[in-house]
Every structure is written in C-alpha cells, then in structure tokens.
Design a protein that fits this description.
This protein is an alpha/beta fold and 293 residues long. 41% of the residues lie in helices and 24% in strands. It is built from nine helices and 14 strands. The protein is elongated, with a radius of gyration of 43 Å.
Length: 293
C-alpha cells in the first residue's frame, strides 16, 4: 500500500488545469502570439524615442535622405517653357509665376502654378506638367478678342463670352473688331455678335452697338443715324429694317432714327433739316390751297 501511495497522481494540479483552460481561450492565444510581441516592441520604441536627442537625430536623418533623393539630377527642373501663348502673355506668366531655377520637381506645386497662370485675363485655361529633360511646361489656351468695349474707364478687348482679354490704348489699334459701348455691354457680347451677323449688309456703315439701360441695343450708323431695337427679339426687328432699306433705300433718306422698339409700330424720326424742309413744304402747300380759294 505504501508503494502505491508513493506513485504520482496523474491528474493535473489546480493551477495547471486553469492554465490549460486559459490556453484554450482564443483571445488569450491571440494576446500571446500578437499582442505581447507588439506591446513589447512599442514599449521599447517608446523608451528609445523618449530621449529628445534621439528623436531629433532620426528626423534630421530622414530629412537628409529625402533631400538627397529630391535633389538627384533626374528630379531637377532647370527651365520653363510656355506653349500656345503670345509673347506678351508669356511674359506676364513669367512675372506672376516667379521660380528660381534649378528647383526640385518635388518643390513645385503644379496646381498652384496653373491657378496663378489662369489669373491673367487673356488666359482661358492652362495645363502644367514637368516634361522630360527638366522642363516645366505651361500650355496656355489664350482668349481671342472678339469686340472692343468702350467702358467707363477706357477701351477693353473682350472675347466672345464677354471675358476681359486686355486693355486697349486706342480704338485705331484694332479697327478689325466691332465696337460696343454702354454699361452692361460686356454681359451681352453674344447677342451683340448675333446682331452684327444679321446686319452684315449694313457693315460698311455700322460704327458700333450701344447698350441702353443694360437691356437693349441701338445700332449706330454713320451720318448720325440710329436703329433703336426692342428689348426682346431684336434680330427680327433689325432684319425688317434691312429689308426696307434694300427695297426702298430707307436708310439713304434724311432720317435720324428708325425706332423699332415697338415692332408693331415702327417710327421714323427725321433730321432737323429734313423736318424743317418738310414743315416748310407743308406750309407752302397749305398757303397755295388757301390762295386758290
């Protein structure tokens, strides 16, 4: 009996049994395999970088490595090329986008450069990229002047959309472009161009279009004549005047104004000399009739 009692009990102890049960728990196994190693590493890193000098040395080292990569010859930009722009616009872009070459391509904000270039009135749009060979290329789409606008502050060139292109010193500098005048004319350039297309038969006599009250147009002709157009549908009204002129030489007469503001009731206004002549002739006719009686 004594020999049997000395034999070891095969059943696990209570602590061993609890450990075995704990090892069967998925969360505990995950902690031992991943959580414990990661936590140990984080603690070691925190202890290492707890020293300010070590942190500063690491940041400085990373910055030096980055700078060495960015300043490699294949990443350096040495000059700027501007495509699709006139000499004046190209010069304006170089002034508004000053870059001290050579510069690393990593230091260039291409989107900011594009936005700065598009701030110029004559630039409708721009594309910016770094081309092979270390060239910063700015491709420009320029606005094309369509009209001259006599604004309150002077003459300005506008494109077909009414956007400002540039200032104009003298009207004679662009005699090939039609002249618009009046407040708000720049907001209706498209309508003005349509009217000018309709009035092609009168082109040699047209001096310009005048915007009245920011709502309608007057066609200004030579010899001081004007065609007053309605606020809505001015094109058909102008076509009627042109048809009358072609049929009966309406505008060759001594008229000051052809008023089409009410297309249903066109009105003609004679020049002062013609009006006086007309009144004199009517008076003479009246006198002759009275004397005949």
């Amino acid at each position: 009996m004594r020999s049997l009692s000395r034999l070891r009990d095969p059943a696990p102890s209570r602590s061993a049994y609890k450990m075995q049960r704990l090892m069967l728990t998925p969360m505990f196994r995950f902690f031992l395999r991943i959580g414990l190693p990661v936590g140990s590493v984080l603690i070691a890193v925190a202890i290492y970088f707890g020293d300010a000098d070590r942190r500063e040395a690491l940041v400085s080292g990373v910055a030096d490595i980055r700078r060495q990569i960015e300043e490699r010859p294949e990443f350096m930009v040495n000059l700027m090329a501007i495509e699709g722009a006139s000499a004046e616009v190209a010069e304006d872009i170089r002034e508004i986008v000053p870059i001290d070459f050579p510069v690393s391509s990593f230091d260039l904000d291409l989107e900011q450069i594009r936005l700065r270039a598009e701030e110029i009135d004559a630039v409708a749009g721009a594309g910016v990229r770094v081309r092979a060979g270390g060239v910063l290329e700015i491709e420009v789409k320029e606005r094309q002047p369509a009209v001259v606008w006599r604004a309150r502050d002077g003459l300005e060139l506008l494109d077909a959309g009414g956007h400002r292109v540039a200032a104009l010193a003298y009207r004679a500098d662009r005699p090939d472009l039609p002249l618009l005048a009046g407040a708000g004319a720049h907001k209706a350039v498209g309508e003005a161009l349509s009217l000018l297309a309709v009035s092609e038969p009168l082109a040699p006599r047209i001096r310009g279009l005048l915007r009245v009250g920011e709502r309608r147009w007057d066609v200004v002709l030579d010899r001081g004549q004007r065609i007053l157009l309605p606020e809505t549908d001015p094109g058909p009204a102008l076509e009627r005047v042109i048809a009358l002129d072609q049929a009966r030489n309406l505008l060759a007469r001594d008229l000051a104004v052809v008023d089409m503001r009410n297309p249903e009731r066109p009105t003609l206004r004679m020049n002062q000399t013609a009006a006086e002549t007309f009144r004199d002739s009517k008076f003479q006719d009246m006198t002759t009739k009275m004397s005949d009686r």
